[in-house]
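quick q for whoever's on today - can somebody do inverse folding on this one?? i tried earlier but teh output was garbage lol. tokens:
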């Protein structure tokens, strides 16, 4: 994955990666994980502009998943909502963060700390 592009991403995961690029991209010099910590932290979900939402849900079998939604008029994708298992979701977050760090090397130390704190 390259930051801002869905090249090399499986089509079934386009929605996930597109929304994660909106989640990870810091605005107004906020921390890289400003929105992300709401999604994977205690709140277990968050949404925002340009029309996206991520929600942590447990299905009837007891499996943990992330429901990802984006307004198809904004995303340009056919699928507006998809469920992703926790492993897929966390792998995508990590890959998105790494792609962001490569594209924005001045934020690489911050990204490394987020990954270390969450997944190492």
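ok took a stab at it. sequence:
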């Amino acid at each position: 994955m390259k930051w801002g592009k869905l090249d090399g991403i499986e089509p079934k995961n386009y929605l996930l990666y597109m929304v994660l690029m909106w989640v990870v991209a810091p605005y107004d010099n906020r921390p890289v994980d400003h929105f992300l910590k709401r999604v994977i932290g205690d709140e277990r979900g968050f949404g925002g502009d340009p029309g996206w939402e991520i929600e942590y849900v447990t299905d009837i079998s007891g499996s943990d998943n992330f429901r990802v939604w984006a307004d198809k008029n904004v995303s340009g994708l056919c699928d507006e909502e998809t469920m992703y298992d926790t492993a897929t979701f966390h792998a995508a977050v990590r890959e998105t963060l790494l792609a962001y760090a490569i594209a924005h090397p001045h934020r690489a130390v911050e990204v490394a700390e987020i990954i270390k704190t969450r997944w190492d």
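fwiw The chain has five helices and four strands. also The helical segments are 14-24, 36-40, 72-75, 86-103, 108-119. so keep that in mind when u check it
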